[in-house]
Request: fold
Amino acid sequence: MATILLLSGPNLNLLGERDPEQYGATTLDELVAIAAEAAAKRGHDVEHLQSNHEGALVDAIHSARGRCAAIVFNPGAFSHYAYALTDALATYDGVKIEVHLSNPYAREAWRRHSVISPVVDGTIAGLRAAGYRLAVEAAATLLEERA
Ligand code: DQA
Reply:
């Protein structure tokens, strides 16, 4: 049994109200429940943290080192420019999955580049809430492969 850290970046606390055309109507609590259920099916548990502050997310990644087997991370807008998160993830040697509810590659030009993608194992984007289930399943599969 492993702990998967689900990390949620800025503005994701407003899911459910925020731009449902892009992000769907699912609240963050519901996404956490979806991730926890998917993890439980594979024998793992989920710890969740949401922050609107880059430094708090860096601290959470540091605290996952040697403690959590995987990180599933939706960095929100930090995905596109927050190099401190890139560096923090590079220090973490567990499984790393980036997840986005919307498809940033089909949106504004500034969203089409991720500074997170180069330091993760894989990215799931555009599948709304289903992406959270798939991200946890991907993390569990990579953990089994590495065991
Ligand atoms: C997002 C995509 C980002 O571009 C945006 O800034 C978000 C959410 C997504 O889940 O689709 O806050 O990460």
Summary: The first strand starts at residue 3 and ends at 8. The CA atoms of residues 3 and 68 lie 5 Å apart. Residues 11, 74, 76-77, 79, 100-102, 104, 111 surround DQA (CB under 6 Å). The beta strands are 3-8, 45-50, 70-74, 95-100, 122-125.
